[in-house]
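User: Can you model how adenosine-5'-triphosphate sits in this protein?
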Amino acid sequence: MAYNQEEQNEEEHKKIQYPLDSTCYRILDEIGRGVSAIVYKAICIPMNSSVVAIKAIDLDQSRADLDNIRREAKTMSLLSHPNILKAHCSFTVDRCLWVIMPFMSAGSLQSIISSAFPDGLSEPCIAIVLKETLSALAYLHNQGHLHRDIKAGNILIDSDGTIKLADFGVSASIFEPISGYGSSFSSSSSCLMFTDVAGTPYWMAPEVIHSHTGYSFKADIWSFGITALELAHGRPPLSHLPPSKSLFMKITKRFRFSDYEKTKNSKNYKKFSKGFKDMVGLCLDQDPFRRPTAEKLLKHPFFKSCNKGPDFLVKHVLQGLPSVEQRFKQVKIHRLLSLKKSDGDDDDDPEHGEISKQRRISGWNFNVDGFELDPVLFPTEKDQEISSLKPNYVDDVVKQVDVSELFSDTSTISSPGGSRQSSEVEGVAMNCSGDRRIGGESVSREVMLASLLFLKKSLDDQRQNVMNLISIFHGEQHVVEVNKKDNLIEVIDKLRNEVENEKKKNSALQLEIEFLKSHYSNE
Ligand SMILES: Nc1ncnc2c1ncn2[C@@H]1O[C@H](COP(=O)(O)OP(=O)(O)OP(=O)(O)O)[C@@H](O)[C@H]1O
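Assistant: Here's the modeled complex, given as structure tokens:
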């Protein structure tokens, strides 16, 4: 089912039309990879060989179906704002959707910080980037759209310092009719709400993860706050944890910034202004209704006092930076090397060694705190002594999750009346909540299922990453200069094993989900 954006939007006739034929484009270099897409630098031959970026989305891997993407592209083509990256056109090429976009020569802020500013940008630079992004967000929200994937990876910068918000892959219009979206949509509450889970885990608002309560524009404000921390520290909070674990921590223990506390004592500890910390704190209020709108946030003193522009970014961020394609190659090499380095890591883990070498697995158990499926080993004598103390794991999970308590925060950074409890953690770290054990009897099956589905997605993503690495080995050995045949065979064998392991984990997880579904439907 081929489609092109042109036939769906009369507006498009008014502007220069890029060709809808893949043979008109010549790919020059790969410049980025997402979960289900590869981004290329290319030239459009009939357009005086002008440089473009092509995002090739694998429709088999992508969550969205073609109808939704088509609808989204149509809606997005009506938007116009200096800080929003508008695609030139899009069309299908086999099972891929090619989105032809302006080439933003410095790439994303994420690619910049990961290669040149691992400890984050300076506050004046962050202020400019965030202010421009927030203008785009305020416009989007005023037009009735949620972005749903705000993060540094989706903020692009051009060689002149211009900032544009990109990637509307999961964005959605709150004004669209229910039937028009793959999203679940609820209008039962006082404002229109989405209930499907969309976005990238570390940046997701608690109400998005806890999807049955619904979410709206304020979910973007949360992600905006996380993006501020990402730009300030070089990574989002909790990113040292696997995505599923970070999600579950947010649901059960509420979001804390304890991982940034360590930063305070490190040599790279940075001090940020009160205004910046206050602004981030407002975005990261656990209660979406207390978070400010994008419009209101733009009036915050942090942004009001930001009077520098793109030139400042050129001077302090872009100068001397390798090109986006060079940076991407470096990232690939780095990933490859860390993969090789981690080859032997499992052997260092005594528990893992024991599992794999001495003991047989009898099944899987759900580790509530770690939000992981742990293998259950055939018991040793010592295990049998304590086994009678362990409750049935499903009951255990169900009794420990009291959804009514999850978001009734008593120690958030903003109090209902607007007065603020002291921010005890310095830097951007804020004490959002105590680490309270959750008790009670109420049960959220949706949370359980949503969480398990996330875990499954995380495993799928890991599998995809391994596949990507395999393709790097096959296609670009000259880049990584791995010439020794023996080495290659050994690494490929290990990758193959990893894929097999992932497959096994996926099947086990599938069984687990089936079990939980039938368990709940029987009740
Ligand atoms: N129009 C563009 N011009 C220049 N570089 C781009 C452009 N679009 C994307 N990139 C580069 O490609 C990288 C990958 O982009 P992509 O949108 O596929 O992934 P992502 O948003 O980081 O990940 P995900 O798919 O998980 O959302 C970006 O980080 C950026 O450096």
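A couple of observations from the model: The chain has a mean pLDDT of 69. The two ends are 43 Å apart (CA to CA).
User: Helpful, thanks.
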